[in-house]
Amino acid sequence: MGKLEDRxxxxxxxxxxxxxxxxxxxxxxxxxxxxIAQGFxxxxxxxxxxxxxxxxxxFAYLCHCTDCRRINGTAFHTGIVxxxxxxxxxxxxxxxxxxxxxxxxxxxxxxxxHCGSQLYSQTMAEPAIVSLKAGSVTxxxxxxxxxxxxxxxxxxxxxxxxxxxxxxxxxxxRGQTPIHPSAExxxxx
Length: 189
Prior knowledge:
Strand order of the largest sheet: 6-7-8-9-4-3-10-11
Helix content: 10-25%
Distance between the termini: 34 Å
Structural class: alpha+beta
Number of strands: 11
């Protein structure tokens, strides 16, 4: 069984919290590049807020949901999942915006009040983890941040090429079984 199939098997059989699924997935992912495995740092565009993540991030992912597309002004969101306890902020207090996500979870999105840069998000359902905006990372080359899964694939805009070598979920991860990207094309635009 190939690496993708191993991860799909591990992910498909999990139940319980998303954090438990994430831990299972993280254990089956390829090792991170040493440059990011020791932690990383980031900042907003104007530099008034910076952050550090101590320890190993769990993994990076793509989200194609309409909320992420709108809040980021892009075709998809690239996030880095880390433990909330590993995140430390410096500088100004970030602003936040709470809403219901496409998944039905209450999500708080944190940003710089001065320049508007999105920094991270956190759900009420899984407060022990945060999703940092990959574009805000300043201490590691962007090519070290390789997504290993994608969610809300059904919402993917049709002109975005679909990676076929990563775990793919038609909607969110909670209680879902991964699909093959060629099995489900974009259903909404």
